[in-house]
Each structure stands twice: as C-alpha cells, then as structure tokens.
Description:
With about 375 residues, the protein is of the alpha+beta class. It is about 40% helix and about 25% strand. A hairpin with a 2-residue loop joins β11 (about 245-255) and β12 (about 255-265).
Amino acid sequence: MVDPQATRVISSMYTTIKDSSIWNHLIASMPDPHILQSWEWGRVKNQFGWLPTYYHWQTPGKAAALVLERRVAAAGISTPLRILYVPKGPLLDWGHTALRQQVLDDLQLMARERGAIFIKIDPDIVVGPETTISNIEVTNTLGQAAKADLLLRSWRYSQDQIQFRNTVFLNLMASEEELLGRMKPKARYNIRLAERKGVHIRLGDPGDYPLLYRMYAETSIRDGFVIREESYYQTVWDTFSRKGMAEPLIAEVDNQPVAALILFYFAGKAWFLYGMSRTQHREKMPNYLLQWEAIRRAKEKGCQVYDLWGAPNKFDETDPLWGVYRFKAGLGGQVIHTIGAWDLPVRPLLYQLYTQILPRILNMMRRRGIELTKESVT
C-alpha cells in the first residue's frame, strides 16, 4: 500500500510518489519491471537536464510511469518547449483494456497540459520471439491490441528509437550445467579456453571507474559507436552501485585489465548495459568468461532473467549488431522483439520541425563526440 505521506493526489486516477523505496517496491511488482523505470534512473537523468516525475495509477488497475521532462530552446519562441519521455514504460498489464486506455488518456492529457511538443513511450510489449523476428508486424494478441490503441489515438512509430527495440534474454531458472548445455559448443569451448589461458575475473569497485571509462572509450572508437562524457557514466555507475543495484566485473590477464562489464540488478532481473574491452589478449576469449561470471552472479542474487541488452533490427549480416547478436545467441539467449518506441505529436508542426532538425543535430553531436572521445584516450 502506498504511504499517503509520500504521495500527492493529481486526480482520482493517479498520484505522484516521492519516496524511493516506495517507488521501487511498487514497480518491482509490475509486469515486466525495468531498471530504466527505477527511482535511481530518474535521479541520474535529473543531473543531466531531465525533470523526473513518478506516477502511480490505482484504478481501474495498478500502473506506474517514470516520466522524464526536458525543456527545448527554440529561436523566436518565448514559451519554453518540452518533450516528455517514459523510458521502457509505462508499466502495467497491457492486456487490461480499461487500464491501458486510462493510462494513455492521462499521459496524453499530461503532455498537452505541459505544452509538450510530443511524448515518447517505449514499453517492453513483446510482439514476437526469434521465430518471428524477421517479421516486423505484430504477431500476438497483446501487441495487436496495444498497437491498435496507439494508432487510434494518433501515436506513431518513432524514427528515434532511443533504446534497443530488440534484445536477447537468458532464462536463468536452470542449473549451471543446464545453462552451459544451452550454449553453442563454441561458447562453452571459449569459456574453458579463457580459464586455461589464465583469464581471471575480479569484482571491481568505484576506484576502477576511470579505468572502465577509458576502456569504454577505446571500445567505442574501435567499434564505431558514440558515447557520452565520462561524468555521465561515473554518475550512472556510482548511483546504482551505492544502492547495490550494479557492480563492475573486470577480466584480467597477468593482472592487466583486458575486458569488463557493468552488471545491473533490479526486481529479479539482471542487465548487461555496458561492456568494454581492449585488443590485447582477445585470443584468450576474456569476454566469454566475463559473461559466464555475470550469469553466475546474477543467479546468486536470485535473478530469473538476464537481459543481454540489444539485438539487430534487421537479422542479416549487414546489420551493425550482427556480430554482437551472434555472441549473445551463442550464450544460449533468445531474441525478444518488442513494439519499440512510439511518439504522440502534441504540437504537430513543431514535432515535424523537431524530427527534421534532430537528425542533423545528432550527426553533429556524434562527430564532436567521437573527437572528444579520441582526445580522452590519447
């Protein structure tokens, strides 16, 4: 039950929650709880330009949504413009028609009252397992109902998919022997190879964060993706590790760090959100042993699912994530295809302008980001 001292009534349908333990306990009880809906994620984003608000619905059913709000400056417009984003949410039983419609009604009204250009959601509504991954059409009843509601309300599939639309899940509800047995033979071989070649996995601590960022920067330059400034990752890692919700695992050869990952925990799930490696000793397959240790630690903490975070949009060798996908699939994971991110343009003309200009701004930021990252490791 929600403590009335920690909430403020907004309407008869929903309240805001202002207590971290109440919020995390609440969303942990929701269908498909996600770490990007946690109290800590809102606190992190608050330090980088977003205003978090934590909403809870109690009727006609139980639902929750961390809503992030950001102001957008626009030349010639005196009134502040806003965009709203619900990362990996809202959380609810999407098969509950009345609840689904109530939450969408309220989010739409909220966006209009705040004068937002648009509101974006990307709930983890599964639309197909690996057998149907190549077909982007919704293939299950729940996905069909959710998509139909969104289209009816003038939501549109977003061209700006902030999170990965597809991911790879490992079901941890099995023994270690069974988990190894589900892996591809090459993955099992590489785990044993890493052990024979002297790869050692140790648990990191906050003192390792500068090292981890440098390795992450090296990885981004080598693999061609853009990362943020060091302070952002330091904030994320520190915020979650202080709450016992994240820990770094570092692979070493002869006491030399060669690969690492940050493992996150919440509500019986684990996430592989950040991974980094160096070119040295890659032939010793440190990443395989690193993931095996992550699987074992997640099981020890009672996690039932390990989200390996990210799979291709197009399942062929031309997709940039193809190599990453093959690695994750080799660990015995199953691809999960979700409905992805959807936008509701509240102010259509500004939304159209925003979506036209945003790609150019992002390209400029990416180029500058790559330059800054290179400078940070030289």
